[in-house]
Design goal:
By secondary structure, this protein is of the alpha/beta class. The protein has 2 domains: 6-160, Sulfate adenylyltransferase; 168-413, HUPs (Rossmann fold). The chain is 34% helix and 19% strand. The protein has 14 helices and 16 strands. Helix 3 crosses helix 5 (122-130), helix 9 (242-254) runs antiparallel to helix 13 and helix 10 (277-289) crosses helix 11. The protein is globular, with a radius of gyration of 22 Å. The relative contact order is 0.14.
Length: 419
């Protein structure tokens, strides 16, 4: 039975077998790609980016910027681009109609059928996607770093990535993910997008969304699950290390705050653009392809600084909701109220003068001090695991440092190609 993803298109894995790959990559010009492009090759090949089958040509890019749609009419909010310098194009004699061998770790990764080579104004792209041209915006900064030329065309994975410990159990591509949901008997699954270790505010965000998604369904057996989908991509100094993010979320299940019957942790390779409202829509498309039915959204989903208003993502989602195969679950802030003596929502409790918000700065200072906080802030098992990850993976810190960036074990490698 066909698995249908975003835009009503079938999810198809574009992956060659070993013998086919060896045969089809022989004699091709090779181009080494950086980690962002390698991440997106995986996303295209396994179906996370359905209905895309490759990197965007100019018409699709222009339509995404101006109309937030692909040329086939499907909603799409973030450009997916392959860039090379003019010198790289000319020195390698790359032209439209060529097939290139894309390498990563200097090993064969994918075949790229170059259909188009074109230019596009980066400032115009930034204004359309991020609502600003300021290079202080991380999405704009990433865009300005693109090289002179963009290449559009289809991608086929020639060599599957080797996922390194401790990430391997959490790499669950769309077709496998949908199979897992069926095995669990989940009729509804709500996505929790994350790039942080979970404090109890996050835990109750998930539990609140679980209640909302359950709604009128029978309670005689588990029918609703929460999928934690951790974003794994480029790291900046001060971010939580990837190992701590993925392992602590799974610890909530292992320690019984959730269970196998209603919780699963996974990862998606993606370099955050911090595009606020547009990235909220992009996340809905990704999770549709994973087979989810619901997606939780807080006040400032995927935002950065003061570029977007508190509920801008909710408003933009509403304009295309009828064309998305996923239901948004909106949430107010979860906080600690000492008067109530519990975690509550700003939409429930009215002891406003006593509210203690889960400030990111406060949480980070607690983690940095290494002194176990009250369990109403951090589950003790989660906090202990953060500290363990700091020693085991973070060279003494649970946050990204220069040493971590230089010495960490990569999330995946591309092995040598062999039949």
């Amino acid at each position: 039975m066909a698995e249908i993803g975003h835009g009503g298109k079938e999810i198809v894995e574009r992956i060659l077998g070993p013998a086919e790959a060896v045969a089809q990559t022989k004699g091709l010009k090779s181009v080494e790609v950086r980690s962002q492009i390698a991440n997106e090759i995986i996303d295209i090949a396994y179906g996370w980016f359905t209905p895309l089958v490759g990197f965007m040509g100019k018409a699709d890019l222009d339509s995404v910027c101006k109309k937030m749609r692909l040329t086939n009419g499907a909603v799409w909010s973030i450009p997916i681009l392959f860039d090379l310098s003019e010198g790289e194009v000319s020195d390698n004699g790359i032209k439209e109609g060529d097939s290139l061998l894309l390498t990563y770790d200097e090993n064969p990764m994918a075949i790229f059928e170059v259909e188009e080579i074109y230019d596009y104004d980066k400032g115009e792209m930034c204004q359309a996607v991020y609502g600003t041209t300021e290079d202080k915006h991380p999405g704009c900064a990433r865009t300005y770093q693109y090289k002179d030329k963009f290449l559009g065309g289809k991608i086929t994975l020639a060599n599957r990535p080797k996922i390194n410990p401790p990430y391997a159990p959490y790499f669950i591509p769309p077709l496998e993910m949908r199979k897992r949901f069926r095995e669990k008997g989940w009729e509804r699954v709500v996505a929790h997008q994350t790039r942080n270790v979970p404090h109890t505010g996050h835990e109750w965000l998930m539990k609140g969304a679980w209640f909302q998604a359950y709604a009128e369904l029978s309670i005689e057996k588990p029918l609703v699950g929460v999928l934690v989908n951790a974003i794994i991509g480029a790291k900046r100094k001060g971010d939580y290390i990837d190992e701590a993010i993925i392992l602590t979320h799974d610890e909530l299940r292992k320690s019984g705050y959730f269970g196998d019957h209603n919780h699963l942790t996974s990862l998606t390779f993606w370099d955050m653009r911090y595009a606020g409202p547009r990235e909220a829509i992009f996340h809905a498309m990704l999770r549709t392809n994973l087979g989810l039915t619901h997606h939780m959204y807080g006040r400032d989903h995927a935002g950065v600084g003061t570029y977007y208003g508190a509920y801008d993502a909710h408003r933009l989602l509403a304009t295309v909701q009828d064309e998305l195969a996923i239901t948004p679950v909106y949430s107010m802030n979860w906080l600690y109220c000492p008067h109530c003596g519990e975690i509550t929502s700003e939409g429930l409790c009215n002891h406003r003068q006593e509210w203690q918000m889960f400030s990111g700065t406060l949480i980070r200072s607690i983690v940095q001090d290494g002194v176990k906080p009250p369990r109403l802030i951090f589950r003790p098992e989660v906090f202990d695991l953060v500290m363990e990850c700091a020693e085991k993976y973070g060279f003494g810190s649970p946050f990204v440092t220069d040493e971590y960036l230089e010495k960490r074990t990569p999330v995946f490698n591309i092995p040598p190609l062999s039949a």
